[in-house]
Amino acid sequence: MTISTLEQAPDVLVIGGGNAALCAALMAAEAGASVLLLEAAPREWRGGNSGHTRNLRCMHDAPQDVLVEAYPEEEYWQDLLKVTGGITNEKLARLVIRASSTCRDWMRKHGVHFQPPLSGALHVARTNAFFMGGGKALVNAYYRSAEKLGVKIRYNAPVDKLDIQDGRFIAAYVKGERISAKTCVLAAGGFESNLDWLREAWGQNEHGEWPADNFLIRGTQYNQGVLLKHLLEHGADRIGDPTQAHMVAIDARAPLYDGGICTRIDCVSLGVVVNRQGERFYDEGEDFWPKRYAIWGRLVAQQPGQIGYSIIDAKAVGRFMPPVFPGVQADTLPELAAKLGLPVDTFMRTLDDYNRACRVGTFDHTRLDDCHTDGVNPAKTHWARPIDTGPFYGYALRPGITFTYLGLKTDETAAVRFNDVPSDNLFVAGEMMSGNVLGKGYTAGVGMSIGTAFGRIAGTQAALAALSVKEASHANA
Ligand SMILES: Cc1cc2nc3c(=O)[nH]c(=O)nc-3n(C[C@H](O)[C@H](O)[C@H](O)COP(=O)(O)OP(=O)(O)OC[C@H]3O[C@@H](n4cnc5c(N)ncnc54)[C@H](O)[C@@H]3O)c2cc1C
C-alpha cells in the first residue's frame, strides 16, 4: 500500500518525534509545506529523550529574561572545545552557538515557557535556560503547535528503511507501508537504546567482560538506531566513534530505560569515588560538575564490573540535589565499605591516603576552590576535604547512557552526504548528527541547542527543496 493511494504525499516527511523532529516540522509548516511526522513511539511515550530534558545552553551578550550576566560566543566555544578535546567542527559548532542566542523567541511563539533554575540545578543560571514544566512540557507544546499548523502526526510508526536513489530520498517504509514525500528530515535519535549495538560497539574488555551489558539507558527505549544503521549501510557519510556518548554515572538501582534525570547522583565532586576493588580512579574535583558529570559514566564503564561507589560524609549533605533513593548509610567508614560489599582493607587504605593528602584551604563549591590533595594518585584538584565526619553515605553507580554520538556527517544546510556530496532532499537533525559537534565529552544543555538549531535548519531546507520542486512542476504543467 502506498500513502499516495490514501492521500496526497506530503511535501516534507519528518521521521522522529522529539525536539529536533518537531523543530523541523514546525519550520517546514511555517514555510508553507505540507508535513507528515512519523513517531515510532505510541502517543503516551512520544517525544523521545527530549521529554526528559530540562534546559538548553544559550549564548547571550547581556542578561536576558531568565539568563543572568552574559555568556558570549567565545566562552561557549571554548567550553565546547575543552570538553570535546577539539573533536568538533568549529563552523557547525559556532552555528549552533549563534542560533542558541536567537531561538528562544521562536520557541516561545510555539508555547515553550522558560524559568530560572531551581536551587540544586548544576550552577547554570548564567548559561542555561530552563523549560517550565521540563522537556515534557516543551514537547507537548510543540505537538500542539504542530497540529494547529496542520502537521499530520502518526504514532506507532517506526520507519525501518528508506528508498534512496543516487543520494535522493524517494520513500520511507513503516511495517511494509510505503510513504513517499518530496523531501525528508531524519531526526530519529542515536542508537543508545539498542543494547545489541552498544554491546558490539564496546566489545569485550581485558577482563573478558562485555561492558555494555551493565549499561542503563537514561531515556527512551525507541532510539534503536535502525535508520542510522540503514543509512550508514547505504553509503551515507558517517561521523563519530560508536563508543562515544553522553554517559552519566547514575544510581545503580535505576530502571533499564527512562529513569530520567532523577537517577543522577550529583555528589561526586563532594567526596571520592572508588571502584569495586576499593580504589579511586579519577580526579573527582577536576572541574565544575556540569562540565564533568557526563564523563563519569564512561569512567565507571571502564572499571571492573562497570560499577563505582560515590562516597561522602555528613559535610556534603545538603550541598547537592538529593537522589530519589537514599544512599547506604553507616556510622564508620569500615562499616560503610562492608555494607557496600567492598574490600574493607583496600577501601580504608584508599580513604586514609586520600584524607591524609587533603590540603584544605577555603572550601567553596561555587568556584574552583583551593582545597586540593598533595601526594595521592589520582589527585583531587578542588573541593578536597577529608571524609571524616559521620554518618557516611555510599551510592553504587552504573554507566547511564544518555545519547550516542555516532551519526551522519552533515554541513551547515543539514544535508545528509553521500561520498561527500550533499543530498538535495534528505536532511538530518538532532542526535543523528550531534557527532558533528560533539566528538566526545559534553557540556550541559548543548544537546537541545544542537537539536533546535539543526532541526530548524533541516525543516527550512526540506521545505525550500520541496516547494521549489512543486513550483518547478507547476511551471512545467
Ligand atoms: C535523562 C535525560 C536528560 C537530558 N537532559 C538534557 C537537558 O537538560 N538539556 C539538553 O540539552 N539535553 C538533554 N538531554 C539530551 C537530549 O535529550 C538530546 O540531546 C535531545 O533530546 C535530542 O533530540 P532528538 O530529537 O535528536 O532525539 P529524541 O528526543 O530522542 O527524539 C528521537 C525520536 O525519534 C523517534 N524514533 C526513533 N527511531 C525511529 C524510527 N525508526 N522511526 C520513527 N521514529 C523514530 C523516537 O521515538 C523519538 O521520538 C537529556 C537526555 C536524557 C536522556
Q: Which structural class matches the secondary elements? A: alpha+beta
**C-alpha Rg (nearest Å):** 23 Å
Q: Could you tell me which ligands this complex binds, including any ions or cofactors?
A: flavin-adenine dinucleotide
Might you state the CATH topology name of the largest domain?
FAD/NAD(P)-binding domain
Q: What is the name of the CATH class of the largest domain?
A: Alpha Beta
* Share in β-strands: 15-25%
The helix count comes to: 13
Largest sheet at a glance? 6 strands, mixed
Shape: elongated
How do the strands of the widest beta sheet line up side by side? Answer: 6-2-1-10-22-21
- Number of spatially distinct domains: 2
Q: Which runs of at least 5 residues are low in confidence (pLDDT < 50)?
A: 1-6
CATH H level, superfamily name of the largest domain: FAD/NAD(P)-binding domain
- Percent helix, as a range, is 25-40%
SS elements, strand count: 22
Average pLDDT metric: 94
Notes on the structure:
The protein contains 13 helices and 22 strands. By secondary structure, the protein is of the alpha+beta class. Helix 2 runs parallel beside helix 13 (446-476). The longest helix is centred in the last third of the chain and has 31 residues, at 446-476. The protein is elongated, with a radius of gyration of 23 Å. Residues 15-21, 38-41, 47-50, 52-56, 158-159, 187-189, 218-220, 222-224, 226-227, 260-261, 402-403, 430-431, 445-448, 451 line the site of flavin-adenine dinucleotide (FAD).
